[in-house]
Amino acid sequence: xxxxxxxxxxxxxxxxxxxxxxxxxxxxxxxxxxxxxxxxxxxxxxxxxxxxxxxxxxxxxxxxxxxxxxxxxxxxxxxxxxxxxxxxxxxxxxxxxxxxxxxxxxxxxxxxxxxxxxxxxxxxxxxxxxxxxxxxxxxxxxxxxxxxxxxxxxxxxxxxxxxxxxxxxxxxxxxxxxxxxxxxxxxxxxxxxxxxxxxxxxxxxxxxxxxxxxxxxxxxxxxxxxxxxxxxxxxxxxxxxxxxxxxxxxxxxxxxxxxxxxxxxxxxxxxxxxxxxxxxxxxxxxxxxxxxxxxxxxxxxxxxxxxxxxxxxxxxxxxxxxxxxxxxxxxxxxxxxxxx
Length: 340
What we know:
Blueprint: H1 10-22, H2 26-38, H3 45-58, H4 61-74, H5 80-92, H6 96-105, H7 111-123, H8 127-139, H9 146-159, H10 162-175, H11 181-193, H12 197-206, H13 212-224, H14 228-238, H15 247-259, H16 263-276, H17 282-294, H18 298-307, H19 313-325, H20 329-339
Helix pairs in contact: 1-2, 1-3, 2-3, 3-4, 3-5, 4-5, 5-6, 5-7, 6-7, 7-8, 7-9, 8-9, 9-10, 9-11, 10-11, 11-12, 11-13, 12-13, 13-14, 13-15, 14-15, 15-16, 15-17, 16-17, 17-18, 17-19, 18-19, 19-20
């Protein structure tokens, strides 16, 4: 070893691995793991957990499997925290079969492990399996957390099953999680997507605090249910609250304006989009193009379109559709050919 070079011990290697992960440097975390292996250093349980979390964030399935091999060799697979992180990693990387295999081998499973499996099944489009796991979890006497209930409610959304959703809602109240903003938002989103805005409003009105996500879920619910005017009324009410709208809020509001052909409301929302700095966001720009076109103002449509920093397929579909609607199809095609 060269003079002045400090040789890291295993503890220092693991601490550095965890530090990269904590800082959100997921790629660096995985790279550092590879460097550790090259030097013959295997992480301990405190290093494996952040490493697996980094793989989950990156969707790095192969690196996660490589970490799993080292976990087995080091004898850490039975550790509940490592096992939970493995389940979560496989689920988030889309390999629910691997997640299930790890889950089945675990000698003990806490609420976080069950929740990881439930969320994994929801992500993979297996809502019914997620609900079955939730019932099994309760049978084994494991108390659900707020995240568990969010996963269960999302499973109901994926299945569009209102009765299962109401059953989950009752259990949420009994467990005392109905005041949690994340659970409450998931509930009202579930009711809205299942077509029961009355239930969504009941949840919304009982919530002690609402964030932009909550407001957006309500606005989107009204739009989905064909109640664009109610969405706009709710947005005006939101402006009296100390809640800063985000890009998704504006997308919902602009969709509401489009659905009821409310161009003046749309222009007012457009001003707020500019003031809030969301006018450079492509999805918001697309909604503005679509809104102006369907409200009959091609001048505003072209102005927004030309001011957009970039265009995607949705942008071109919106401008082409608007021009075709107003008899300017050739003009739009000419512009498309020039840009492409």
